[in-house]
UniProtKB/TrEMBL annotation:
Coiled coil: none
Organism: Streptomyces sporangiiformans
The organism's place on the tree of life at top rank: Bacteria
Gene3D superfamilies named in the record: 2.60.120.200
Record-given protein name: DUF1349 domain-containing protein
Length: 202
């Protein structure tokens, strides 16, 4: 199913399980079902990785910033709303507002074969602003409590410039340990450029 958001210059397509995605009055909503996640554990080769969660993704051209305020209906550990980047089946990244495991936290996962996992800062309440950016083969993650001053979270690559330039980006919901959770995104904004300074709060 294709979804058009007026803020984005590219179409979005659904991937993975049914996320019941809907858009109304500037708010995008999605739902993760029970035990849905994308994570490839680095600690146990024998463990089957959780491999699917509802995603709504599109393919922007060139440099960009994708911004949204993410609100999560937390019910269980690791429930999360996500801005997501997909380059390949084992090459993708998540910027999350996650119940980690019982405190809302901005966290990141970068998967290159296996996933890593890193927490940034905790959040009061169930909402935070998230931003993903790309220039060439580089991606950056930022988060903000007010949508104005941004905290630098992570800078990384996912393959070469060609594969990164073809990345799919967008939205994901997850509930790895729970029975499901609802995620909403508002204040969605697209900017066709890279931040001027990753660390000055702009």
């Amino acid at each position: 199913m294709d979804v058009e958001l007026p803020q984005l210059p590219f179409s979005l397509r659904t991937y993975g399980p049914d996320g019941h995605w809907s858009y109304e009055d500037g708010v995008l909503s999605g739902w993760a079902g029970a035990r849905q996640d994308r994570f490839v554990p680095p600690t146990d080769e024998a463990l089957d990785p959780a491999s699917d969660a509802p995603r709504l993704l599109g393919a922007p051209e060139g440099d960009f910033q994708l911004i949204a305020r993410v609100t999560v209906g937390f019910a269980a550990a690791f429930d999360a709303g996500v801005l997501y980047i997909h380059v390949g089946e084992r090459a993708w990244a998540k910027l999350c507002l996650e119940n980690s495991p019982d405190v809302p936290t901005v966290c990141t996962v970068v998967t290159r074969g296996h996933s890593d996992d890193a927490n940034s800062f905790t959040v009061e309440g169930s909402s935070v602003w998230l931003r993903i950016s790309r220039t060439g083969r580089a991606f950056a993650f930022h988060a903000s409590k007010d949508g104005k001053r941004w905290t630098f979270v992570r800078l990384f690559t996912l393959g070469d410039e060609e594969t990164s330039g073809a990345a799919l980006v967008g939205f994901m919901a997850q509930s790895p340990m729970g029975e499901g959770c609802v995620v909403t995104y508002d204040g969605i904004e697209f900017r066709p450029d890279w931040p001027k300074d990753l660390r000055d709060g702009s």
